[in-house]
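Input record, target 12 of the design panel.
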């Protein structure tokens, strides 16, 4: 999966999240749908000391409302580690393509990528709660 370069907003991650996510990337032995996307985004991310109160961004544990721009549907999820994912509880893994795409984005950011199925995906962040 690769993100489109023209649709790549700034990505920020906290030092703690970066270390955790990088360790997950190094430890993942099986291909996961969002792993390559997550690693690509980590590679270009800006690592910051902590959360930004003025312009929050999606971190591990964030509750995020986003819009699927192709389906024009809104969804609220909590982004977490792979073992925390639970569809019934609206918790998604950072190794899911949408979870990987959301990490580091701020409200108003839009992101596009092409999935393993060769279909384009586009999302926009509507709100973030920690």
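The sequence produced for target 12 reads:
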């Amino acid at each position: 999966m690769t993100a489109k370069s023209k649709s790549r907003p700034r990505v920020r991650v906290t030092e703690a999240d970066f270390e955790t996510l990088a360790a997950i990337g190094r430890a993942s032995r099986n291909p996961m749908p969002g792993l390559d996307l997550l690693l690509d985004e980590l590679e270009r991310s800006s690592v910051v000391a902590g959360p930004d109160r003025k312009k929050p961004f999606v971190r591990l544990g964030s509750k995020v409302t986003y819009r699927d721009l192709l389906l024009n549907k809104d969804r609220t999820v909590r982004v977490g580690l792979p073992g925390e994912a639970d569809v019934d509880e609206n918790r998604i893994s950072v190794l899911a393509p949408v979870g990987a795409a959301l990490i580091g984005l701020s409200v108003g950011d839009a992101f596009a990528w092409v999935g393993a199925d060769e279909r384009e995906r586009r999302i926009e962040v509507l709100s973030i709660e920690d």
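The longest helix spans residues 15-27.
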